[in-house]
Design brief:
By secondary structure, this protein is α/β, with parallel strands linked by helices. Helix content is 31%, strand content 17%. The protein has an eight-stranded mixed β-sheet, with helices on both faces. The longest helix is centred in the last third of the chain and has 14 residues, at 157-170. The termini are far apart. It binds NADP nicotinamide-adenine-dinucleotide phosphate (NAP).
Length: 214
């Protein structure tokens, strides 16, 4: 695994690109406005980064991160992501994304929506509950006392392991929630969403999360 593709190069996408380059990956970043608008970021990231279209980033990535507003999910290319591990950082903010009845009613989760849009990809929810700035300031070497943990969820165990290994390289432990249907445990307004947590603390927060009634 050598190349990380990014669909979305905003607060989270640019930070994950920085972590990826720092850890020896090539990155292909993309946004909605076109590669030329990413020239400054590519310059900052250096020779292991290039800007491209979302289709090209999806094709190039061994792992691809989708990190855009949820309202634009339908724009994410499906075919080039087939069979791949796709990391989904998306959260639902109705004021930005518009109201989505199945989320308002807790019938589904944002990650299950991503998986439904990408039926042949292995979607793993990750990086959705940490502020973008903290991605490059809170990481610590494996084994550090009180190392911060990030929650992951996904239906494919192998994909969850791949993403946990990547997160470990990026400086964080993981707390594995299990399948995407359980990913509501780390959605907006749950105890683990936002604060710094060790793996043990995060597991307690995930267990304590309450899903609003349907
Ligand atoms: N900010 C945080 O601390 C944080 C933390 C965890 C999770 N999240 C979640 O992660 C996602 C990204 O958040 P963010 O804060 O990084 O957002 P952001 O700063 O607004 O950046 C969004 C990025 O997505 C790109 N984009 C939008 N529509 C696209 C499309 N149709 N195709 C390709 N690229 C598209 C934008 O490109 P253009 O600028 O060219 O439109 C931009 O690069 C959101 O779902 C958010 O809720 C955010």
């Amino acid at each position: 695994m050598k190349t990380i593709g990014l669909i979305g190069a905003g607060h989270i996408g640019s930070q994950l690109a920085r972590l990826a380059v720092k850890n020896g990956y090539d990155v292909v970043i993309s946004n909605s406005r076109g590669p030329e608008t990413l020239a400054d970021l590519v310059r900052e990231l250096g020779p292991h980064a290039r800007a491209a279209t979302p289709d090209e980033a999806a094709t190039a990535g061994d792992i691809v991160v989708v990190t855009i507003p949820l309202k634009n999910l339908d724009d994410v290319p499906v075919a080039p992501l087939s069979g791949k591990v796709v990391i989904d950082t998306l959260n639902y903010y109705p004021q930005r994304d518009g109201h989505i009845a199945d989320l308002d009613n807790e019938k589904t989760t944002t990650s299950e929506m991503v998986q439904a849009h990408l039926p042949t990809s292995k979607v793993v929810k990750a990086f959705n509950h940490i502020y973008a700035a903290e991605l490059t300031t809170h990481g610590q070497a494996a084994g550090s006392p009180d190392r911060r943990a990030l929650a992951i969820a996904g239906n494919d165990l192998g994909a969850r392991k791949d993403v946990a290994a990547l997160i470990d390289q990026f400086g964080f432990d993981t707390a594995d929630i299990g399948p995407l249907s359980e990913s509501w445990r780390i959605q907006r307004d749950t105890p683990g969403y936002g604060p710094r947590r060790t793996a043990e603390e995060m597991r307690k927060d995930l267990a304590a999360a309450k899903r609003p009634p349907k």
